[in-house]
């Protein structure tokens, strides 16, 4: 059995504070973890959790991925923005145009996210987090489609998107130009295997699809650390 997307992880300077923020914005249940990390849990078993891990360096540039939150109506969009601001979020300028209807915000640790206007057809029926929008190549979109065994739901003009067969959040890659990597990502994917699965065989499968092993190999939690074809870190753990 192949690995599943277990969590979207953020290296954070204030894990508990970020978990409280995102729990309040999304209405997801918070959960404390070992070693000072924190998480918010999805409302059903088909979704991924969001984990906040301690030890992140202060933010120096845009993340390579951000959440696009959905809105059921213009009032719902206004309420989501107001709730985020009350919880410690802030408005930011990333070059968005005045006529664009989405609202760009940052969480208390500076991680960008957007609150998308109502009526966005691409994000229809995806849930509170409509998309994780990533900076990345077409190649990396193909890689993650095979790695997660999620079908491509968009593949045009070198832009790609995948979505679980069960629905939910889409993961998108915007195609070129892709900014060069300048250091470890603040945001990365964490995959999980069933306890009785062959981890080495799964690592070999991911490498055959285009992943590479890191020099580190494993962290102190026994997670295997890998890079996708664009050089983005991700980890593999037992579920």
TrEMBL record:
Give start and end of each VOC domain: 4-118, 125-239
Q: Name one Pfam family in it.
A: Glyoxalase_6
Q: List, alphabetically, the PROSITE patterns matched.
A: VOC (PS51819)
Q: What is this protein called?
A: Bleomycin resistance protein
Write down the species.
Streptomyces populi
């Amino acid at each position: 059995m192949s690995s599943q997307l277990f969590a979207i992880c953020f290296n954070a300077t204030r894990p508990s504070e970020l978990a409280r923020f995102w729990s309040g914005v999304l209405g997801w249940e918070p959960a404390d973890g070992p070693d000072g990390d924190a998480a918010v849990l999805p409302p059903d078993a088909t979704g991924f959790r969001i984990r906040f891990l301690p030890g992140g360096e202060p933010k120096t540039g845009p993340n390579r991925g951000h959440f696009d939150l959905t809105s059921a109506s213009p009032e719902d969009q206004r309420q989501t923005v107001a709730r985020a601001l009350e919880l410690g979020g802030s408005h930011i300028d990333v070059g968005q145009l005045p006529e664009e209807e989405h609202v760009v915000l940052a969480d208390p640790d500076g991680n960008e996210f957007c609150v998308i206007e109502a009526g966005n057809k691409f994000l229809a029926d995806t849930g509170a987090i409509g998309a994780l929008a990533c900076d990345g190549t077409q190649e990396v979109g193909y890689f993650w489609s095979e790695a997660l065994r999620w079908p491509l739901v968009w593949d045009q003009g070198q832009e790609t998107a995948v979505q679980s067969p069960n629905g939910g959040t889409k993961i998108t890659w915007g195609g070129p130009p892709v900014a060069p990597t300048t250091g470890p990502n603040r945001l990365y994917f964490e995959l999980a295997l069933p306890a009785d699965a062959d981890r080495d065989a799964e690592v070999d499968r991911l490498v055959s699809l285009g992943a590479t092993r890191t020099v580190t190999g494993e962290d102190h939690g026994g997670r295997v650390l890998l890079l996708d074809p664009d050089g983005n870190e991700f980890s593999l753990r037992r579920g």
